[in-house]
Design a protein that fits this description.
Blueprint (H helix, E strand, L loop, with lengths): L3 H19 L12 H17 L1 H16 L1 H10 L4 H14 L9 H18 L15 H8 L2 E2 L2 E2 L8 H7 L3 H30 L5 H21 L5 H24 L3 E5 L6 E5 L4 H8 L37
Antiparallel strand pairs: 1-2, 3-4
Length: 326
């Protein structure tokens, strides 16, 4: 299957933003950086994230549904302990019935993979010696401008693992390229970890082993893999990844504040839980908590003996018989 349509789409968005920023910022390099090309990559991220925002909302709703199902999932795990096949069937039936999709949490990331691949391919071919300069809707002038675009004097098509011949064709210094690319890779790893950690801290670890495995993969596996794969990414692609992570951090923070995740709150009956917002504030929250703050009931007062009645405890009366009153 040809991916040319992805390359055309990514190129069109990139070139459209470059034309807009080229009319605003200086066309030349400032601080060794061609900002019109850097900003075009940044706003490529903004464009894609705006398009994918409805999918992100569905992701949040699916995660809420999965959270609300955790008590039922736990019951199934206890019921079918040791029978993994039956457990998986029961859980899939539960997800189908409640219209919850465990894989929805990864959907926005999967949809961005074609964009990432398209940008990777587009930037990888930005070499002055490349004969196909007018592919995917580019003009020769646009291709020449992009192939010489730099971030702090490091070409955006350069990589940490670029060979000496590749850097020579770009007119780049090997030390500068490795330094800029290395710093960006570290930032990419850190922001990738923080985006996953932010969500897990707010929603908690899943009870479902399958969901927990996905969470561990997102939190640790992907950042570790970037230590290796980051060396083959062009600097422009790493700029895209870092910008995308920063956008995700801000978007998640906004969504988690506006729609707080549900947390299980134990009730009097063992094994039963109810879902409530993670944060409760205002007058309603305080009023709901007041009945639990009642003072302990005091022991009822015992009335004294009536005149003429025998004492309840003769020992406390000194062992003397009560006198009868005539």
């Amino acid at each position: 299957m040809s991916l040319d349509w992805i390359y055309y789409a990514i190129s069109w968005i990139l070139l459209t933003w470059h034309s807009a920023w080229d009319a605003i910022v200086s066309a030349g390099a400032v601080i060794g950086t061609n900002w019109s090309w850097i900003l075009s990559i940044v706003f490529l991220v903004v464009t894609i994230r705006v398009i994918l925002f409805p999918v992100f909302v569905k992701q949040i709703k699916s995660q809420r549904a999965m959270q609300a199902l955790q008590p039922k999932v736990k019951e199934l795990q206890e019921k079918h302990k040791g029978d993994r096949e039956t457990l998986q069937k029961e859980m899939m039936e539960l997800y189908r019935k409640e219209k919850a999709n465990p894989l929805m949490g990864c959907l926005p990331m999967f949809l961005q993979i074609p964009v990432f691949l398209g940008l990777f391919h587009t930037l990888k071919r930005l070499k002055p010696t490349n004969p196909g300069k007018t592919l995917y809707g580019w003009t020769v002038d646009q291709f020449e401008s992009a192939s010489h675009a730099k971030l702090f004097t490091a070409p955006i098509s350069g990589r940490f693992g670029s060979t000496a011949d590749e850097l020579a064709s770009l007119g780049a210094n090997a030390t500068t390229v490795k330094l800029v690319a290395g710093v960006l890779v570290l930032i990419m790893i850190a922001t990738t970890y923080l985006t996953s950690r932010q969500m897990i801290l707010k929603t908690g670890w899943a009870e479902d082993p399958q969901q927990r495995m996905v969470q561990r993969l997102m939190l640790y596996g992907i950042p570790v893999s970037l230590l290796v794969s980051g060396s083959i990414f062009p600097i422009g692609v790493i700029i895209y990844w870092v910008t995308n992570n920063l956008f995700t951090l801000g978007q998640q923070q906004w969504v988690l504040r506006k729609f707080p995740p549900l947390v299980p709150v134990k009730t009097g009956a063992p094994g039963r839980t109810t879902a409530q917002p993670a944060k409760s504030g205002g007058l309603l929250g305080r009023k709901a908590a007041q009945p639990a703050a009642k003072a302990p009931a005091t022991a009822p007062k015992v009335a004294g003996p009536k005149p003429g009645a025998k004492p309840v405890n003769p020992k406390k009366s000194g062992g003397r018989p009560a006198k009868r009153q005539g």
